[in-house]
Design a protein that fits this description.
Length: about 130
């Protein structure tokens, strides 16, 4: 399950980078909605807020996990950064810092992907009505 989440998040991060580049290329062009520049700034600001929130709130983004030793939680979504067991012992991994940074990048790119989808379907609707 965790491998699937990490792989899906990695694919979504690549899609987010593509979305960011695409959104930036469409800012001054005529084939985008009239309020595209404002929406781009809004998505950028929302992405920064989500990235900061994920960075500061890693320990509040918990995913429950059960194993032979008992209940526990993985902190950080979608990339797991820390394991916390039932006795509140924290187990840091070698990739904890990289996971926290990857979470921040993922949450920064998420609004860009939503904006890309909006722009894509808007352009599709405009060209389909001609």
């Amino acid at each position: 399950m965790f491998i699937t989440i990490i792989l899906a998040a990695s694919v979504l991060m690549l899609a987010g980078v593509y979305s960011l580049i695409s959104n930036l290329l469409h800012v001054g062009r005529g084939d985008s909605p009239a309020n595209w520049k404002k929406l781009s700034y809004g998505a950028f600001a929302a992405g920064i807020l989500l990235a900061l929130s994920s960075w500061l709130g890693t320990f509040w983004m918990l995913l429950p996990y059960s194993n032979v030793a008992g209940e526990g939680w993985f902190a950080g979504l979608p990339f797991m950064a820390v394991y916390v067991d039932a006795t509140d012992n924290h187990y840091d991994f070698n990739f904890t810092k990289a996971s926290v940074i990857a979470n921040a990048i993922f949450w920064f790119l998420l609004p860009m992907s939503c904006l890309y989808l909006y722009g894509h379907y808007w352009r599709r609707r405009q060209h389909g009505s001609e």
